[in-house]
Design brief:
Strand content: 25-35%
Mean pLDDT: 84
Protein name: Histidine kinase domain-containing protein
Low-confidence stretches: 1-11
Distance between the termini: 35 Å
Pfam families: HATPase_c_2
Keywords: Kinase, Serine/threonine-protein kinase, Transferase
Radius of gyration: 15 Å
InterPro entries: Anti-sigma-factor_SerPK (IPR050267), HATPase_C_sf (IPR036890), HATPase_dom (IPR003594), His_kinase_dom (IPR005467)
Number of strands: 6
Number of helices: 3
Structural class: alpha+beta
Length: 146
């Protein structure tokens, strides 16, 4: 189940949408589709939109696989020269962000998603970060728009 909760009145943010969803497999394409609609409405360039859509698929998929119980929150904001994606969950564990120039075991069946998101984000001048808070964590992707 996805719940849309509106727009923000924060002056630095021109556009903001977010959704609350149960972390199940069906939520991954639902959230991705809603993010795509927002990015199209905001006329975000295709190369930037593609990176953010890859990121939302990976981050929401990670919540489904790793976070456990509780709902997740996905937010997308555009303003102040940045496009921002936040994926928050109540899971206690923090993801390990890849080190610069990280090597991935070629035999491993997982562990590449955050590295790919980080590389594609940094290619556009952006950043991937994790913020821990009392209710869990937020993984954030920021990409400059100017």
């Amino acid at each position: 189940m996805l719940t849309t909760t509106g727009t923000s009145a924060v002056p630095a943010i021109r556009r903001f949408v977010h959704w609350v969803a149960d972390p199940d497999v069906a939520s991954v394409p639902q959230v991705r589709a809603r993010v795509r609609v927002a990015l199209e409405a905001w006329a975000v360039p295709l190369d930037t939109a593609d990176v953010l859509l890859l990121a939302v698929s990976e981050l929401v998929g990670n919540v489904v696989r790793h976070a456990g119980a509780g709902r997740m929150r996905v937010g997308v904001a555009l303003g102040a020269g940045w496009l921002r994606l936040d994926v928050a969950d109540r899971g206690a564990g923090l993801p390990r962000l890849p080190a610069p120039r990280a090597q991935v075991d070629p035999e491993s069946e997982s562990g590449r998603g955050l590295l790919i998101v980080q590389l594609m984000t940094s290619e556009l001048g952006g950043e991937l970060s994790v913020v821990a808070h009392e209710f869990g964590k937020t993984v954030r992707v920021r990409i400059p728009t100017a």
